[in-house]
Automatic annotation (TrEMBL), chain A:
GO CC term, one of those recorded: cytoplasm
Ranges of residues in domain C-CAP/cofactor C-like: 165-325
Signal peptide residues on this chain, from the entry's feature table: none
Record GO biological process: post-chaperonin tubulin folding pathway; tubulin complex assembly
Family: Belongs to the TBCC family.
Subunit composition and interactions: Supercomplex made of cofactors A to E. Cofactors A and D function by capturing and stabilizing tubulin in a quasi-native conformation. Cofactor E binds to the cofactor D-tubulin complex; interaction with cofactor C then causes the release of tubulin polypeptides that are committed to the native state.
Organism of derivation: Kingdonia uniflora
Cell location: Cytoplasm
GO terms assigned for molecular function: tubulin binding
UniProt keywords, alphabetically: Acetylation, Chaperone, Cytoplasm
Domain of life of the native organism: Eukaryota
Protein name stated in the entry: C-CAP/cofactor C-like domain-containing protein
PROSITE patterns, alphabetized: C_CAP_COFACTOR_C
Pfam families listed in its UniProt record: TBCC (PF07986), TBCC_N (PF16752)
Automatic annotation (TrEMBL), chain B:
Protein name from the UniProt record: ADP-ribosylation factor-like protein 2
Binding positions (GTP): 23-30, 69, 125-128
Source lineage: Eukaryota, Viridiplantae, Streptophyta, Embryophyta, Tracheophyta
Family listed: Belongs to the small GTPase superfamily. Arf family.
Superkingdom: Eukaryota
């Protein structure tokens, strides 16, 4: 096929009526094609030298011989696996080997497809997909399917090593739900009616989680990378700049003061958000949520905000997108907090007492 | 002239790849696309709908469909399945709590017949965040080893924030797709 294209393109060159620009384009194309052809020939001679029997000779006949040999060998292997006398322990690796051989055969067809008649390519591809199907059937019949299931892991509580002057230190809890043991991130979990304080000192620390808190007050100062909030009720949460994103799910009757690059709010009810955010915050499955600008203050917050590129008020706190309300008119699920109802400033500099100016 | 332009068109078409990028919300899909294209990643809003990005990668043209991952719009993912050469599944490696969700959505996706031939690249994103799970741990939780043997897949740790690992992942994906695509006509 390559040869044919090559010749067809030589004809217009001899036509003298062509203007010089077209001619030079033709020449460029021609040289490119001939380069391609040369490199292919070169590659072929290389593969011919490196391997003997399996190399392609640009001949349909030798391709077909090789192809049918591989096909027969795969079929006989498959047949062996289906034989009930075959030993069980090697069955899985046998089937794996067959799968590899089919992939190899597929690659072989791919490598040679450029010179084969299209009928042969299609026929070979059909054969390969048939082989794959047979293998799949063999797999499902011979190997019992492994089922994914969750197992309960015992909960291990561990005190955090670098204890800060905090009201309650944060826990590191091993996740319960996964069958594979995965460590959980730093965070405050399962607390009721307490004040929780955390300070991030170093530059841009990791992520932090707040989950299952009831009637708590959370104060986090310093920069960190990501915040995950899950299942909070009647809490007040004050957070310094978050360099990455904040994800909030299932909160009710809370007050949040947050600064971040991205904020996503899911399943929130009757909650006020005071935000500084570089992009548009989004809500999904929320109702009765209200928004106002960021009001947090603590010693050194200017520096932290600047470090996280959150020092500038973008006005995005009111550009809320509601994924449950994709229309031009204002969503009924959220509103702007009237100015007279907003708190005017929150200072969390001292961990002893919280001052809120109303 | 007619013949030449037809040949050029075919040549151009051959080198195009359609890549579908999905994953839970907050996993960093849009940031990855912008980072790999060398664009500003400092202001990215959660994707409402989808973005299409055409980028030249090695000698190929990649059409990347970056589809939003919020729960409400996940049901629209199926509108983008047709003709997909490569599938990129992005995981937030520091979001341990939602890994079950992540596994469930990925399993549903892989049952889809229209995606059965697509190479699968799993990007374990946010590796730069302290405490993020490693690609190996993610692979275990997602039970990737039990995947259909005919599927070409690979998991790569990356950080859209620093750019680490992105090229490794895309290199593999593009090579894998290129080795599968046949010149039929």
């Amino acid at each position: 096929m390559e040869e044919e294209q090559y010749q067809t393109k030589q004809t217009p060159i001899t036509n003298e009526t062509l203007d010089s620009i077209t001619q030079s384009k033709h020449e460029a194309m021609l040289s490119r094609l001939s380069n391609l052809h040369q490199s292919r020939l070169l590659q072929q001679s290389l593969t011919r030298n490196s391997s003997d029997s399996n190399s392609s000779f640009e001949s349909t006949k030798s391709f077909l011989t090789n192809f049918s040999e591989s096909k027969t060998s795969i079929e006989s292997q498959l047949h062996l696996c289906r034989n009930p006398d075959s030993s069980k322990p090697t069955l899985k690796s046998d089937l794996n080997n067959i799968s590899t051989s089919i992939t190899d055969l597929e690659r072989f067809v791919a490598e040679n497809s450029y010179f084969l008649p299209s009928y042969e390519v299609r026929a070979s591809l059909k054969t390969i997909s048939d082989l794959k199907e047979t293998l799949e059937i063999a797999n499902s019949e011979l190997l019992p399917k492994k089922k994914f299931s969750f197992k309960n892991k015992s909960v291990v509580k561990k005190e955090m090593s670098n204890a800060e002057p905090v009201v309650r230190v944060c826990d590191s809890v091993v996740a319960e739900k996964h069958s594979v043991q995965v460590r959980d991130s730093l965070g405050f979990r399962n607390e009721e009616g307490v004040v929780l304080v955390k300070h991030f000192g170093g530059a841009k620390e990791g992520d932090f989680t707040l989950s299952d808190l009831n009637g708590c007050e959370v104060r986090i100062t310093g920069c960190f990378r990501a915040l995950y909030i899950h299942r909070l009720k009647d809490c007040r949460v004050f957070v310094g700049p978050v360099l990455g994103s904040i994800l909030i799910e299932e909160v009710e009757g809370c007050l949040f003061v947050l600064a971040s690059h991205q904020i996503r709010i899911h399943h929130a009810k009757g909650t006020d958000f005071y935000l500084r955010v570089r992009s548009r915050p989004i809500v999904e499955d929320c109702n009765g949520v209200r928004f106002a600008p960021y009001v947090l203050d603590y010693e050194g917050i200017e520096r932290d905000l600047k470090e996280s590129s959150l020092d500038e008020e973008t006005g995005n706190w009111e550009n809320v997108d509601d994924f449950k309300w994709l229309r031009a008119v204002q969503s009924p699920n959220w509103s702007i907090l009237p100015e007279e109802e907003r708190v005017s400033g929150v200072n969390i500099s001292s961990s002893e007492a919280l001052s809120i100016d109303c | 002239m007619g013949l030449l332009s037809i040949i050029r068109k075919i040549k151009k078409k051959e080198k195009e790849m359609r890549i579908l990028m999905v994953g839970l919300d907050n996993s960093g899909k849009t940031t990855i696309v912008l980072r790999i294209n060398g664009e500003d990643t400092s202001v990215i809003s959660p994707t409402l709908g989808f973005n299409i990005k055409t980028i030249s990668y090695q000698k190929y043209t990649l059409n990347i469909w970056d589809v939003g991952g919020q729960r409400t719009i996940r049901s629209y993912w199926r509108n983008y399945f047709e003709q997909t050469d490569g599938l990129i599944w992005v995981v937030d490696s520091s979001d341990v709590r939602r890994l079950d969700d992540c596994k469930m959505e990925l399993d549903n996706l892989l049952k889809e017949e229209r995606l059965s031939g697509a190479s699968l690249l799993i990007l374990a994103n946010k590796q730069d965040i302290q405490g993020a799970l490693t690609p190996k741990e993610i692979a275990e939780v997602l039970n990737l080893d039990s995947m259909d043997r005919t599927r070409h897949w690979k998991i790569v740790g990356c950080s859209a924030y620093t750019g680490d690992g992105l090229l490794d992942g895309f290199d593999w994906l593009v090579q894998d797709i290129a080795s599968r695509i046949y010149v039929l006509d």
